[in-house]
Each structure stands twice: as C-alpha cells, then as structure tokens.
Amino acid sequence: MKRFFLHTTFIILTLISISAKAQNKIGVTNLQCEMLSNPEGIDVVQPRLSWQINANVSDVKQTAYQIIVSSTLENLNANKGDLWDTGKVQSNASVNIIYNGKRLENRQNAFWKVILWTNKGEIQSVDKAHFSMGIMNYADWKSTRWIGYEKASAGDSISQYSKLSARYLRKEINLKKQVKSAKVYIMGMGLYELYINGNKIGDQVLAPVPTDYTKNVKYNVFDVTSQLKEGKNMLGTILGNGRFFTMRQDFKPYKIKTFGYPKMALQLYVEYTDGTKEVIRTDDTWKVTTNGPILSNNEYDGEEYDARKELKNWNTTNFDDKNWFQAEYVQEPGGFYEAQMTPNMKIMGEVKPISIKQTPKGTYILDMGQNMVGWLQLKVKGKSGDKVILKFAESLQADGSLYIENLRDARTTDVYTLKGEGEEIWEPTFVFHGFRFVEVSGFPTKPTLDNFVGKVVYDDIKTTGTFESSDAVMNQIFKNAYWGISGNYKGMPIDCPQRNERQPWLGDRTTGAYGESFLFDNQTLYAKWLDDIKNAQTADGGIPDVAPAFWRYYGDNVTWPGTYITVAEMLYQQFGDKKVIEKHYPSMKKWVVYMEQNYLVKDLMTKDKYGDWCVPPESLELIHSKDSARTTNGELIASAFYYHLLQKMKKFATINGNNSDDIQYYDSLSERVKTAFNVKFFNASKNNYANNTVTANLLPLAFGMVPENLQSKVFENIVHEVEVTYNGHISTGVIGTQFLMRTLSEYGRPDLSYKLASNDTYPSWGYMAKNGATTIWELWNGNTADPKMNSQNHVMLLGDLLIWYYENIAGIKSNPETPGFKQIIMKPDFETGLTFVNASYESIHGTIKSNWKKTKNNLQWNITIPANTSAIVYLPSTKVSAVTLDNKKLDKTAVSYKVENNKLILILPSGSYVLNVK
C-alpha cells in the first residue's frame, strides 16, 4: 500500500550529518518536510517545528539547536534568518518547537532548516524545509463570491432517498504574462474535484474533510505553478454532495442536519515573473451545468454515472459552453473559513477479488476476500446504453445472495451506463462503500476477476505500528483491527462505513483512539475532531454524542461526551501535544460544570444513556442481554466515569498552570463523588460493587476509587467472574472493555488477559475471526443475533485491546512523565503464555522496536530506542549474573540498573540492544 508520513500540527524535518566527526554515524532515512497536512497554506500563526535524529550509534543526545527561518531560499542558503533565527538554544527538545519570529503574513512563504549539537558532534539539515501561510483573515475572502446552482434539475429527487446530479463549473482565464508561481485556494462543498487545463489537481479524493459547515468550512491549497501557462487557461471543478447536501434530505429534520445545495468559493493567486500579482476569483462569469454524466452521488445509496453524457474536453480551453448557464451567486455556508490542517482521503491501496460466482438469477457475486472500504473500479466492453449495476454488502445469505438487511435503508448501489466505445474503465467519484461482496448485474459479457479492482480509501495517514506474535488468533485480530480502523477514518472517525449511519460517535473512540494511535499517525485527525466537538458544544456547556452534530443527539450522558477529554489526553500522552489541552480546557471545564449543575445529585452522577453498551448477551440469538446479572447500574457507570474525568481535568489544570482554584475544585468534587460512590455501591460483606459485574468492579478499581486495603479483594471478584462465572470469556460491553485488559495485567493476571485475547469461542474477538470476520463486528455475536442489527465493520468493541498489545505485551509505552515517548517504559508481560512478540512503533522521535522470544531456559529481547530518547527496561529476573547486554555481563560503569519488585530495571540510552536472561 502507498502511504505518506504526515504530521499536521508541526513540521517534520529529518536530518543528516555533515560533520566529519559524525559522518556515517548520525543520519536519517526518509527525508521529509510536512507542515500540517499540506505545507501550502496554513493558518497557524505560530507553527510548531519538529525533527527526528536517526543514528546507527548508541547514546545520541541532542544538547542544543538552532532554527533558521527565511523568507526566501536564497536567504536560507546564506544562513540569513530574516523571519526567525533562534541562535544556539541549549535544549534537548526536538518536537513542537513553537515559531516565535516575525509575524507570518497572508500567503507568506517560509524556508527553514535546523542546526543541532549533540554529544556526538554537530549536525545540520541538508535539505531545506518549506511551508507557506494561507489566507489569514476573512476579509481576504470577502470579494470571492460563493457560486453554484441552487435548485434541483430534471431527474433529481429531494426526498428520503436524495438524488442530486453533480455540478460542473468552468472558467476560461487569460494570463498575459509569464507565471512565476501560482496557488489555488478552494472551498468546494460538499466534495470537489479541481482541474486546470484538463488535469486533475492533487491525488486526494472525497475532499475536503467534513465539518458542521455552519460552524467552520475547510479550504484546501494547491501549488499549481506547473499547470498554468501564459495565455489561455481553463479552470474547472466538479461539485459532489458529500455531507453538505445530505443523504436523507428533508427526512427527519428534527434529527438530521442539512446545509443546502453544493457550492464553491475559489481563489487563484498568481505571481508573474515581473513581480506583479493577480487574483482570479469565483464570480458570476463562471459557467455551470448539471447535465453531466454524474446523475447522482449519495453516500448511502451510491453513484449513478451515464458515460453517454460525458462532456468531452469540458475542462480544457477547447470546449464550447454556450449551452451552459451563468453560475449563480449563492449564500455562504455560514461557518468560519479555515485552512484544512489534516490530510484528505486518498486511494491508499488496492484489493484484487478472490472469486466470482454466477447466481441462479443470472447475476454474479464478487468476493473481495476482505471487508474493505472504498469502491470498485470497473473494466467493461459493451453497447451504448448497457447498464452495469454494482450492489455492495458485507455478507451473504445461505443461498449465496447478498445480505442487505443490516444496511437498513442505504441502497449502496453504483450504476454505470456504457457509452459503447471499446473498453471502458470507470470508478465513482463522490461516494464510498463498506463491503466484501458485490452483486454484479447487467454485465454485457461474462465477467471475470480481471474486470474488477477494489480501491481502498481512507485518510492519507501513515501506518506507524506493526505487531506479530506466536498466537495466530491475536495476529488475525490485529489485522482485523487494522482494516476496521483505517476504513472508518473519513476526515473524522466514523462508527461504520456501510449502513445508513456512518456517524462520528464519541463513545466509539473514548479509549479506542488511544489504541489506534499505535497503528496510525492519527494525531491530526483527532486534533481536528476535538475542534468538531468544541464547535458542537451548546452555549450552556452540553456536548453531543455525535460530532460534528450531523445528527442532533444531545443526550447529556457522561461516557460518550467524556471522549472530548480522553482524546485530548491521548494526544498529549502519545504525541506530546500540549496545545490541544490549552485550546480545549475552557470548553472541557464548561462541560464538567454543566454536568455537575444539572445531573449531580447527592454527589452522584444520575444521568447515563447507554449503560455498558453491547454486553455479550447470554444467548447467541439475543441482540442485547436481558439478564439483570449482566447489567451494570447506569448511575455507577456515570459516577465512576465522571470521577475518572475529574482526575484528568486536574491533570490538565496542572499542565496549563491554572490557578489553584481549579485544582481545588476538581479535588473537592472528585473526593465527594468517590465518598458517595463507595457508600452507595460498595458491598463490604462481599468486597464488590453493586451487583458484582466485571464492569461494576473494574471501573472503580481502574480509576483509583477503591480503598487501597480492599483493592486485592475487589480484584479477586473480577477474576472469579471472568474465570468461573464466564468461563474465561469477556462479559463487559463498550465501557468495561476499555479498561479490562490493562487492569487484569496491572493486578498480576496477564495470563487471564492473554486468555481473553486468544479465545476463539463466544464471546471474544477471536470468535469473530473464526467465524469469517476480517474486521471487528459491532456485536460479539454478530453472526447469530439478528444480523440486521450488526455492522460487520465497527471498532468500538476493541476497548483497550490494542493498548494492551503494545504497552503490556510488546512493552512500548510512553512514560506519562515525559509525554510523546521522550522516555519509553519497556515492561512486557512475559508470563502470558506467548513465546514470541515482534512489534514496532514509529513515534514522533523515531522508531521503537521490541522483539522478544522465550524458550524454556532463555529470554532474548532485541530492542531499539530512538536517538535523543531513553528507556526504562524491565527484565523478569533479580539476578544480575543471569543477564547479558549485547553478549556482555552487566557493568554498572556502563549501564545504570537496579533490582526492585522482583524486576531488574535498566536505564538505557538510545540505540539497538540485545538482552538475554537465563
């Protein structure tokens, strides 16, 4: 698969050594410079700069840096930092260095590099990094008018099943001078494709990322210098519907938010070689038509394309648009204009189908072999007017036909009408599907596997984590998680990609975002999502269950809105992103106070909406459990979770340096909640909480609400329930599973965590895989409960499983005291039953590796610690003589170590090491 490394709130600049002393010792591979998702046009006035040091020697520490930022490449080459020159700064910091130079103006270009001093010598960047500012104020957009076509055309339908043809817009321009540089700034709602002189600009798809367009609208920026020439040029766009003209227009208006017809605002900013400048803007001289080949594009229902209506050369200067009409000036969306600081979606890979079978009714069923998200590319020959119909689904019925009930009223169908001109290759433009199987009908000849290719589509973010182990079930679960997570990255984290939902539910990512961060560089995705949540907050402090609030679900519970806080902590912990805490703290506190004032009664949180959602039911045929013994009290869940969030808010207040009043407020309130909680829910005679469900005991134990002298007894009840009552299987739902695996390991039963992770009988993740799942199901028993209630590509039930994979099994964890993996805690649970684990994670400081293998008499552990970091390494031995480091006995003059709690603890600097324990 093709992937790119993106960091969207800072610049990555990798370095190579040029000093004689460090030649071939300190260097880098994969040289990159990425400012946000797009270095062309950002609106952060003080961008954060970062770099990585790669080294093939051990113990490399940065001691100082100098950043030089220049307005021209010539100045940078001369080391003239006319925008910013830090001078030599004594510091080991290499990420999130805040720009503090001259004010960066509209469309400002900036070129920069860094010089470093390390304990091994001086190094400096050879390549030159670049970024440019976007349009920094609303006034610069003011004379750029929004244009479109504000009505339905013949064949359109404004109904529950919305059908709206794509808008094609074009404008011929005349550039009278030689072009030195040119950039396009575009807001195309809901989705756009941009062309200049017949060429598509960029390789993004389904752009821009979705927002609540009444709150904020994202613009994309492209350097199009090479696409323009002196003389006549043609600008062209196609506008699709996306989340703007919604899939269910005028349907349930009390629930579903709508925004209007597709529209666009665009600026082409041109600088000529003589130094003069020109701005070409959208206005009513643009021409528009809806009479193109894209007859309909609806995310739920699919795309209809009639190749007979293709507009040949419509986006070049050689086209007669006399039958097109003038574009209309239209009302702007209402939201504030912002540079998009997160990647667009792209085609990230391809899947070849594994089989195609004819059905009794003459259609064909195509099996991709993998539940995937994206679309199908079609290759076909036939007569003009032949229609190929592609219907998408996740599973089959017993007779081999598509199972579509779980799609609800989503029609998930693409229709291609042939023009009849030899071989035709087509794929949709403005929709995506979640599917494994495709019903093909109307194919003019007998189709073969070679007629189809699956295109995998998700946000253009890098895969940062790998994991394999000696357990095949765990490996398959990891693969399933990978496909499920990536497929649901759609400019926001959605719950599922196939049915008539596809919504960014907060509760699905409360802890899930943390686990996902080990697999994908999801920092910018979740930073953007926090903005979506903030923008969805009500004036009095309420936070919805879905954000952006495309569905008006303001349920005022704790566990779903609390994701606002837990995701912010994840971004700080995993990426060292302090800015998100500073930015969102006031809104988070507003919500905390709102919940206290409205729902705290006698120091307990009384409002819970979903409970421990999706607890495994007692019968394989049930969707939800009816057994009260499996149901955890909602007030217990809400109160425990509220306490948990108060602890995080206290941490945020400390990070921000807030005055002691805030800290005292959280301390006082959380102590009151904990006291009331234990009074009401703790059963002193049985040492358990409420009705003794695993979740009821797990939450207070994981959150530190259980008195210290009773913790082991409460844990014994958890173990008994898991081992005896549920025969070594999961009994928790979405809430409990977020803390299950780590808590079992933390309190000394990693073997029990491993049992849950490696099970292949119901209920378990392995049960899903054993029964054909290639992603993660919505229900533990999704194959036997009413299947119409089961999405086969959900991630909410992963809980803390992936965190456990990396932190507890691989031993790759960021020390909370040094966020962003500046120091790594490497403390694997070697006593699980696994015999080997091989994992890696590309942190913001570089790649961390952990590869261990156990035999009866020996543990060998190969580890890699990135340059400019260190690691605390825990070994399962108290005998120093039993351990070797790089085949040498431990020597306190060479390495720091101590024995504590039956572990040998080493402090290792950066480098690659081989540890052996007899």
From TrEMBL:
Domain Alpha-L-rhamnosidase six-hairpin glycosidase intervals: 463-809
Organism: Flavobacterium azizsancarii
Entry's EC annotation: 3.2.1.40
A Pfam family: Ig_Rha78A_N
The protein's name in its UniProt record: alpha-L-rhamnosidase
MF terms in GO: hydrolase activity
Enzyme class: hydrolase
Reactions mediated catalytically: Hydrolysis of terminal non-reducing alpha-L-rhamnose residues in alpha-L-rhamnosides
